Amino acid sequence: DRVNAYNYRKESPTHWKEEVYKGPDFFEKMIAEKKGNVVVLSGNNERKADYILRSLQNGFDVLADKPMATDGKGFEQLKQAFEVAQKNDLLLYDIMTERFEITSILQREISMIPEIFGTLEKGTPDDPAVVKESTHFFYKYISGNVVTRPPWFFDVSQQGEGIVDVMTHLVDLVFWECFPNEAIDYTKDIQIDSATHWTTDLSLEQFRTLTKIDSFPAYLRKNISADTMIKIFSNGEINYAIRGVHARIRALWKYKSAENTGDLYYAMMRGTKANLIIRQGPEEKYQPALYVEPIPSLKSIDIAGYFKSIQEKFPGVQLQATKNGWKVIIPDKYKEGHEEHFARVTKNFLQYLKRKNMPAWEVPNMLAKYYVTTGALELIRKAK
Fold it and tell me: pTM for the complete prediction?
């Protein structure tokens, strides 16, 4: 039991007390009893948009794990949910942990220094100005333990395809970094150029390892090949433009990392003076690292003086020269794990709930985010 694992761990044990109700009427019971004022939604995504909407209609504030919508129907429900939240002065917020990853924070901060970055290029569909790619592994460790996946996790009708699931983080970061503190209007600011998806194939043996279940459930039959292989549409790519700035985002899923790494991430922002690149490969020992790489005609630029504003805000951050520019050296005190990121999101949510001060750009950008992911999926479906 994961909760007990947290409660009884040696380092920083938690003190969760579980009161679990597993009846089929769990949602109706929650609405009727209303023992609190906030609903936290995570897990199976098949009815999440519906649960979000109904929770708000019954007077609850909602903190929801991503994705809040996994298809066009869910997006329409989400639009209605935000209307209900606004009308009833309620808060609806999704959990975007990656904004608290220090390399992404610094990539955003440096991009706002024109003397170093210049301005964001527009790019083209074939040569986008912004590229983000995340690689995930079904076999992975969380909090020191191998994750046991529920079998429905491999059913895209319940979990959602990769293009609408983990891709939400990438879309969110594009808005957050490239258009800081700006509201994106999905009805006029976004153009989806193309989208594609493809499967990751898992053997029955791999499925057993991940789920601790001996056979494929009946609801997965439609995705099974030759009785021993399941095909999951967990990978996807979206090419789109935001106010003329072209971006390419890609989410990949593999069974297991050969090097036993965690999730991997690559991100590039192309400026008129320099590119800001996050790499997490063998050279970085599979830890995210941020690089500032001036364009060839500006190789001799000295950014040290302009970098002082970063060092004042993040004491201890340094620049280390590389053959292509600089690597940003980040002290360990800024490097937090997934648990700490969740705590920071929750802290923000509770602050917004108490002070009614959520930034005005958050709601339009949440809508724009799910417009991109669900719109890309609908584009793929129409092409078939």
Answer: 0.95
